[in-house]
Every structure is written in structure tokens, then in C-alpha cells.
Design goal:
Blueprint: E1 4-7, H1 13-24, E2 28-33, H2 40-49, E3 53-57, H3 63-77, E4 82-85, H4 100-128, E5 131-136, H5 149-173, E6 175-181, H6 188-197, H7 210-225, H8 235-247, E7 254-256, H9 259-269, H10 276-283
Parallel strand pairs: 1-2, 1-4, 2-3, 4-5, 5-6, 6-7
Helix pairs in contact: 1-8, 3-4, 4-5, 5-10
């Protein structure tokens, strides 16, 4: 029987590319998205290559929607081998500029959604004594960055959540956990981030924050013009790393997706690049 995978956020970007790539590598793919009206490009790709992909509606902000999708898969296959928590949204504003509603939204989409889907799938993997949960986080889950405090906080939360589960669930129940930590991804994710960032005048930072934001942008532009490595990758490039991770017999807890991401996070990761040392240290206290 084929291995199967549930992927969230497959309408564009990494999720879209991962759905195609896993299907082309002999996985049964359950490609989910909040709004199936956005599934036309994926449907066309499925038809063109006769791919084993089934589309399901799943909104990571809606627990009933998650449970319905999970139960549909279990009724068809009796198992879920992999969960790829990919759905997320970018956001960059100062704390003062952000509304509490926006902060709640960023946290819900990027962190609580991961908790909901993991909570729905984990019992079945535990009972099967098999499974791999892969969470797409970010270098922003390791390094706080200007104007990204709400987004970074949500991704930091995913990092802590995943690491904590890995300390005791993996060894006891053979359920693996991994975090994929890209830099920027040049997909619709970035377009959506911009649309959520600007105020009604199209400004990204106002008042006393405006000159800081301008210097931040100028610095990024100067580094690009100087030929420094770009943080941006394509969704396909990141998806290829996710596939390699899924196929690995002993997948790491953490993996960055580019040299830029490795260099950017080195001060935080050099003592334990893949997270295995800290997991072993904590497991030693409970075994």
C-alpha cells in the first residue's frame, strides 16, 4: 500500500509544489486548502500528469473542518503516514501599528492551526506506532526580525511546540517530528504578506517607525545589489527538501533550506544544528 500524506495549504507555493512532488514520487496525496475555488491550477496539474492527488477542503482555523478531512482520509485508507503542516501567512507590522485582531489572526493561522491539525492526526499515528509530522516554520522561528514580531512569535511557538513533542512522543511511539526552516519564499505567500502589512494608505510603518523601516528596506536592497546571497527560494526548491526529509530513515528535528538560512541562524544553531543533541539530553531525563 502506498504511503499517504496530508498537506495543508496547497493552493499555491510550497504546498502546491509539495503536493505535485510527493505524488510524482509514489505517494497518495491528500491536498487540502481552505477555499477549493483556488484549486484550479492544482486540478489542471493533476489531470495533465494523472497524479494520485485527492483534493479536500481544510481550514486550519476551523477544528471541525480539520476533523472532517482527517476522518475522510482514515475512512478511505485507515491511516495517515505523513502530515505536512504547511499552511501559514506572512505579516510584518510594528506592534503599535498592529491591531489585537491582526495579532490573533497571525497567531491562529501560523501556530494554533498547526496545533489543531497535529492534535487531530497524532492519536492515529500513536496507535499505529508510525508516522512523521513535518512543520514548515521559518528562520523567523529562530531569529526575531524587525517588523516581524507577531509572525516570529507564532513561528517561535511552533518551534517550541514541535521540539517538546519530539522529546517524548518519538521514542515511545515511533512518531517522528521535523521542522523545515526556510528564509523567504518567492511565492504568493510574500504577496499576501504585503497585502496584510500595509495600512489603508499603503504605508508599511508610520510615525517614528517610518525612518527605521526605510533603513531596513535600504539595507536589504544594498545587500542584494552587492551580490550577497538571497534569502528567497522558490516553492519547488523548498518542496524538494521536504521530500528528501520525508524519505530519510532518520530525519532531523530541524533543517534549514538554504545556505543563506544556515548562515543567518548560525549563532542560534551552531551548538546543535539539527536539534538532535537537545532531544537526546531531555530524553535521558525521562528514560
Amino acid at each position: 500500500m502506498k504511503k499517504n500524506i496530508l498537506i495543508t495549504g496547497t493552493s499555491t507555493g510550497v504546498g502546491y509544489e509539495a503536493a505535485l512532488l510527493f505524488a510524482k514520487n509514489d505517494f497518495k496525496v491528500y491536498a487540502t486548502m481552505r477555499n477549493l475555488d483556488k484549486s484550479t491550477p492544482l486540478k489542471e496539474a493533476i489531470s495533465a500528469d494523472n497524479l494520485d492527488i485527492e483534493l479536500l477542503p481544510l481550514d486550519v482555523s476551523d477544528n471541525e473542518s480539520i476533523l472532517k478531512a482527517v476522518n475522510t482520509i482514515l475512512e478511505k485508507d485507515g491511516k495517515i503516514d505523513y502530515l505536512l503542516n504547511n499552511a501559514g501567512a506572512g505579516f510584518a507590522k510594528t506592534l503599535e501599528q498592529s491591531t489585537l485582531e491582526e495579532i490573533d489572526w497571525v497567531t491562529d493561522v501560523n501556530y494554533t492551526g498547526v496545533v489543531r491539525t497535529t492534535k487531530a492526526v497524532l492519536p492515529h499515528m500513536r496507535e499505529a506506532r508510525s508516522g512523521h509530522i513535518i512543520n514548515v516554520t521559518s528562520v523567523g522561528g529562530l531569529i526575531g526580525q524587525p517588523f516581524n514580531e507577531a509572525y516570529c512569535a507564532a513561528k517561535f511557538a511552533v518551534e517550541g511546540f514541535t521540539e517538546a513533542l519530539a522529546t517524548y512522543v518519538s521514542k515511545a511511539f515511533n512518531v517522528k517530528f521535523s521542522m523545515v526552516e526556510p528564509g523567504g519564499i518567492s511565492t504568493e505567500f510574500m504577496t499576501n504578506a504585503v497585502s496584510k502589512t500595509a495600512n489603508d494608505k499603503g504605508e508599511f510603518a508610520t510615525g517614528e517607525y517610518a525612518p527605521i523601516f526605510q533603513k531596513y528596506l535600504e539595507g536589504a536592497q544594498n545587500r542584494a545589489e552587492a551580490g550577497e546571497a538571497s534569502p528567497y527560494q522558490t516553492g519547488k526548491e523548498v518542496a524538494e527538501i521536504i521530500l528528501d526529509l520525508a524519505l530519510s530513515e532518520n530525519p532531523p528535528l530541524r533543517i534549514r533550506t538554504s545556505k543563506w538560512a544556515e548562515d543567518f541562524t548560525q549563532l542560534k544553531t551552531q551548538a546543535d544544528p539539527d536539534g538532535s543533541k537537545v532531544i537526546a539530553q531531555i530524553q535521558a531525563t525521562i528514560n
